[in-house]
Amino acid sequence: MILVTGGTGFVGPKVIHALRERELPVRCLVRKPSSSPAQSLTAWGCELVQGDVTDAQSLRRGVEGCDTVVHLVAIRQGSQEKFEQVMEQATRDLVAAAKEAGARRFVLMSALGTSEQTQDLVPYYHAKWEMEQTVAGSGLEHVIFRPSFIFGRDGGILPTFKRLARLAPVTPIIGSGTQRLQPIWVDDVAAYFAEGVQRPDVTGRIFELGGPDAVTWNELWQRLKRALGVRRPSIHVPFGLMRANALITERLPGDVPLTRDLLTMLEHGDNTVSNDNAVQTFGLPLAPLDEQLRRAI
Question: Is the pTM of this model over 0.90?
Answer without folding.
Answer: yes
